[in-house]
Every structure is written in C-alpha cells, then in structure tokens.
Design goal:
alpha/beta, 32% helix, 198 residues
Amino acid sequence: MPRNILLFSLALLVLLCGCGRSTPTRYYLLESALGPVKADSLPSKTLRVAQVTVPDYLDRNSIVSRVNGQTELIVSQFHAWAEPVGHGVRRVVQEVLTAPMLAAGFNVLAAGDDTRADYVLLVDVQRLDGNFEANAVLEARWTIKNRHDDVLARGIYADVEQVNGKTYDTLTAAESAMVRRLAEHLATRLPALIRGKS
C-alpha cells in the first residue's frame, strides 16, 4: 500500500510540473522599416506628433484580431504589443514623416522634446485589427493645428491590407504597412496645408 501511494504521489508531481509550464508570450512592434535620418542642421519650423488616441478595445498589451470580420474579437493571451499601440503608431508616424518634412522645411520633434511646436498633428485611431487569412483594417482621423490651437485641416484615412497567413507575424506586418501608408499620406498633404500658416 505505501508503494502505491508513493507511485501515485510521483505521478501527481510529474503531472503538476507539466501543468506549470505555459507558452511564452511573444512581443511585437509596429515597424516603419526605415533607416535613420541624418541632418547637420534642422529647420526652425517645427511639427509635433501628439499622443495618438486609440479605442478602448485596443488600449491593452494583447494583440486583438477579429473573427470572420464580425464584431467578435479575439484577445491573444500569448501575443502582445511590446509598447502601447498608440505609442507604436506615433513612433512610426514620426519616423516616416521625418525625412519628407525635413525636405519641405519642417523639423519633426522627437517624442521626448518638450519644445513648443509651430504645428501639432493629432491622430485618432478608430480601428486597427484584422482577420487571419483575410484583411487587416486601419481607420483613423487626423487634425493639424497651429501653435495657437487653431485647426488648419482635418481628414479621415482608411486602409485595408491583406493578411497572408494565420500568424501574428503576418497580422502585425499588415498593420505596420497600413500605419506606414497613413504617415506617407500625411507626408504628402501636410507641407501644403501648413506652409505659410501659423
């Protein structure tokens, strides 16, 4: 009898040790895929990309996807953003805007630069998610203001990118591509909208 208890205890211990392991969480970043920009001097006119707002369902570490394009969401347990989604969108927009805005005579301030800017870009992400082996969707509104808080222009941007696969790598790559295109769209619009307006 004591031998049976010992064997049972060992089997239970092995079983509990196996249950104690969990899949490690994988972390992802939105990516601009651009190299660093170099400049010996910077223009005096400045543009700040303000903190990006996101809807509550995206304001979490876990990556969110949709079920068959419907209203049901999947919040991943083991796949997470390495930074808040709004910070990632802001970082990518800043990186993409820097070179074209420099060429147009505007300095895009770094996130930690507290200098009061001549112009402020606000981005409000309304949707950023997708379906595996279907599409990722980005919907955003943007506003450009001058240093006096006057609205110079507003716009809505929407984009769709095919997700080729069932992995979070492909989903986050599709989302990165759409955020890059949002920033590229802004880079073509902003210089004409703010040149000569203060």
